[in-house]
Amino acid sequence: MHEIYNTEGIILSGGDIGEANKFINIFSEQFGLISATAQSVRQIKSKLRFGLQKFTVSNFSLVRGKDVWRITNIEYKQNLYYEFCKDKNKLKTMISILVLIKKLLAGEKYNKRLYKIIRRSISFLKKENLSEKEISDFENIVLIRVLHNLGYFNEDKKIQGENIYKKIIETSSWSKKILEEVRGFNGEIIEDINESLYNTHLF
């Protein structure tokens, strides 16, 4: 009997296989970025089909196969696209963050802190009433935290004599105060983010 593994995850992308199956990429809490198949989920009678849309957050039950995982059950939690679709700026930012995660992650790797960074960030973005400038500040902070977590960002670098990056990186919590703290450094911050993205050799 195959062992069943359970993890929360966010569906980043997917596609159809044959007449009834699906192939999806999941950013998971327990296993990093994984590829998984779901059998017969495009049939009308399938109980799993509603939990397999892009940008859906679910609890997944999986069996490890030779090359990919196989989904045995799904507990649907939320669909991020539908939650953000009424605010185009928030939606665009949320999608950009998740697309970046897919590009940066190199397969399966346990990284619970990175998952926490993304889940807390999305939760803050959803609940707070943010201006367009605040959303831009928010995205910069997320990028810094993600890039640092993956080893691409130097937290010791100072801007105008201030160690602003340590303040950003040392916690995954959120407040409007931290958005205000970074705004005066946005020019330098964007340059440092772009340099870090360039150093990944993925852009």
Q: Could you please describe the fold and organization of this structure?
A:
The chain has 203 residues and is of the alpha+beta class. The protein folds into two domains: 77 residues, Nucleic acid-binding proteins (OB fold (Dihydrolipoamide Acetyltransferase, E2P)); 114 residues, no CATH class. The protein is 41% helix and 24% strand. It contains seven helices and five strands. Strands 1-2-3-5-4 form a five-stranded mixed barrel. A hairpin with a 3-residue loop joins β1 and β2. α3 runs antiparallel to α4. The protein is globular, with a radius of gyration of 18 Å. 31% of the residues are buried.
Largest sheet composition: 5 strands, mixed, barrel
Helical percentage:
40-55%
Task: Provide mean pLDDT, rounded.
Answer: 88
Give the tally of β-strands. 5
Would you tell me the structural class of the helices and strands? alpha+beta
Strand line-up of the largest beta sheet: 1-2-3-5-4
Globally, the shape reads globular
The ordered H/E elements are EEEEEHHHHHHH
Termini Cα gap: 43 Å
Radius of gyration: 18 Å
| Weakly predicted, low-confidence segments | none
Number of structural domains: 2
Percent of residues in beta strands: 15-25%
- Our count of helices gives 7
